[in-house]
Amino acid sequence: MAELFKIERMTSRPQFLAAAKGVSEARGAVVVQRLARGDGAPVVRLGFTATRKIGNAVIRNRAKRRLREAARAMAPLLAVSGSDYVFIARAGTVDRPWDRLLDDVKSALTRLATPRPAPQDAPNKPASAGQDS
Fold first, then answer.
1. Low-confidence ranges of the chain (pLDDT < 50)
2. What is the pTM of this model?
C-alpha cells in the first residue's frame, strides 16, 4: 500500500506542546498524543520523547529508537493525514517484547484514528431540588 502523505519529524518544543493539547491514548508501554492540525497539508509529523523517569540517557535513547521503529512500521498504515503524533515512552518500553510493542502502537494509532463520540452531559437537576426556601 502506497502512503498518501509525507511523514516528517517534529523537532521543536512548541510542536510537542501543541500536540499535548490534542487527544491521547495510553496502551501498554506507549502513550500516543494526536493533534489534528487542520491546515489541510498531506503531512504527518511524528515526535518521540522519553522522560527522565524512564531511566538514564542510554535507556531513554533505546526506548526512543524502539518507538521510532514501531512508528515507522505502523504510521504509514494507520496515521491520519494532517496530524501531529507524539510517542511517549513508558517504563516498560525498553523491556517489552517487540510484537507486543507493535501491538501497543497499532492499537493506540487505531483508537486515535477513529472519531470519538461527543460526551453526553448529565441531565440537569433543578437547583432547588431538596432545598426549602
1. 1-2, 133
2. 0.82
- Three-class DSSP labels, the chain: CCCCCEEEECCCHHHHHHHCCCEEEEECCEEEEEEECCCCCCEEEEEEECCCCCCCHHHHHHHHHHHHHHHHHHHHHHCCCCEEEEEEECCCCCCCCHHHHHHHHHHHHHHHHCCCCCCCCCCCCCCCCCCCC
HSE-CB at 2 with a 13 A cutoff on CA atoms is 1
Report how far Cα 41 is from the mean position of its chain's Cα atoms.
19
Q: Read off φ and ψ for residue 89, nearest 5 degrees.
A: -75, 145
For residue 45, which of 65, 2, 16, 73 has the smallest C-alpha distance? Answer: 16
